[in-house]
Description:
The protein has helices at residues 39-45, 93-96, 132-135, 145-149, 154-164, 180-191, 204-212, 223-230, 246-254, 277-282, 294-306, 325-333, and strands at residues 2-8, 11-16, 28-37, 61-69, 80-83, 86-87, 107-108, 126-129, 136-138, 172-176, 196-200, 216-218, 236-241, 256-264, 286-289, 318-321, 340-343. By secondary structure, the protein is α/β, with parallel strands linked by helices.
Amino acid sequence: MRGTVFRGPYQVELRDLPVPRVRDARDAVVRVTASAICGTDLHPYRGELPEFDVGTVLGHEFVGVVEEAGDEVAHLVGQRVVASDLVACGRCRMCRLGWHYQCHEATLFGYSTVVGRSIDGGQADYVTVPFADVVLTPCPDELTDEQALFAGDVLATGYIAAERAQIPLGGTVAVIGAGTVGLLAGMCAQARGAAAVVIADPSPARRAAAARCGFSAASPEQLAATIADASSGRGAQSVIEAVGSDAALRLAVESTAPRGTIVAVGAHHSDAAPLDAGRAFGRELTLRFAVGDPIAVWDEVFALVRAGRVDPTTVISHRLPLAEVECGYQLFDRKEATKVVLVCGDVAG
Ligand SMILES: NC(=O)c1ccc[n+]([C@@H]2O[C@H](COP(=O)([O-])OP(=O)(O)OC[C@H]3O[C@@H](n4cnc5c(N)ncnc54)[C@H](O)[C@@H]3O)[C@@H](O)[C@H]2O)c1
Ligand SMILES: [Zn+2]
Ligand SMILES: [Zn+2]
């Protein structure tokens, strides 16, 4: 089978690998039908995570069909499924509270040891899923693979960002970053009653993508004026930071109205505190960090998609065969792609 292997910054390669097998009673082996490249994959790709192991099989967003399963999850064989990017045991105290990222077993597919132990990812023909009774969910029959795919990461993350942002009905939401996470968070903010969504991004291509989704798009420099316009001067009560950089967090703090809430869902790896604490204090802001938890919210997310309140497929700019994964990473890194879906249907089981 083929798998996308990290060879170092700006180098990924599709390699022939052994087909994975079930090793534990809760494992399932999924034949991947579609996977996606995420902004989270760009952190190692751009060399921002020097500890990331060369040889890691990448990819944490995938859908497929269960081919083989351990004794405890045997009922899943033949099931069309979506995987949560976040792996958790489902049984510990943290999991029982519904805080899966805090599970002692928490890790991400295809992400080396950045979060937990290293497990192979799903930009591949097959992938082993641990704790499959928790980490997989059936794809609802009414949803296509593409409609269901993002419930396993970016849509669940956008949903949680909007949920935690304390959006007042008819309020104005500012989103920092017009990648897929930012765009889907904007759609979820509208579904939760925001009257206006303003998205800031330095990339003209991403601003165009935001405008196509019906949002007001601004460069970071224009953000304050665009928020003032969109909110009749009242400001953004809720701000979602979907970049994962110090600059973006700083912009989020600068852009939030008094008593407003900031939800940072961009992945942060810095140990500095880059924000203007004086301003945050003076405006009595609430700052929260949040990690997407598909296991906790996929039923709600599927309901939104089924009801037509959010159409996650509108963010897909490229559908490529898995064989073209290298090109997919290059297009995505250069922002020529908004979201790349890799289709595995070009190969027989
Ligand atoms: N919290 C979670 O659970 C979770 C889940 C998925 C992704 N993420 C993280 O969310 C972030 C976004 O993911 P994505 O897939 O949308 O990535 P992406 O790379 O497609 O999008 C990021 C966007 O941010 C823009 N940007 C860069 N600097 C900016 C700035 N200073 N101000 C405004 N915009 C700026 C870029 O131009 C780009 O369009 C990444 O850090 C990713 O790791 C977090
Ligand atoms: Zn992701
Ligand atoms: Zn657990």
